[in-house]
Design brief:
With 154 residues, this protein is mainly alpha-helical. The protein contains 6 helices and 2 strands, in the order ααααββαα. The protein has a two-stranded antiparallel ribbon. A hairpin with a 7-residue loop joins strand 1 (86-90) and strand 2.
Amino acid sequence: MTRQKEQRLELPLFFPYKLSILQAAISDSIAELYSGEFKLSRQEWRVVAALGTQPNMSAKEIAAYTSMEKMPVSRAISRLVKAGLLAQITSPEDRRSTILNLTEEGNRIYQEIVPLVLEREAFLLSALNSKEREQLDALMEKLLKRTQDLTKKP
């Protein structure tokens, strides 16, 4: 019987690892903008950003929209409601569901943060020329689709 050659994983060269390091570095640099002065957690910022982009969502819709788990979304919503940044109303279609929106204060904070995060994004992407940015977008879409193919149930 032939023995398989032992494989070694070189973590610094492993694509998923490199991608997670990049993602963490980018997230940390963006988090500096909303966590300091605005005292928002990542989850809270994602909820605020989601509702700033797409108002009138339920917690379940926010979780799907942001690709976050339901529990962190629920905790973030509770803190944001308590802080007066989110308003809740009972859904007219389903009395068990709550529709969420930014309050006036929540919208003010959203409007203050958006230019800061867009400026940070522009700075990060300025390392690439326009063709490289297009390629990056296309490659990310391609990899996302490939990853989704792995999770499809037959």
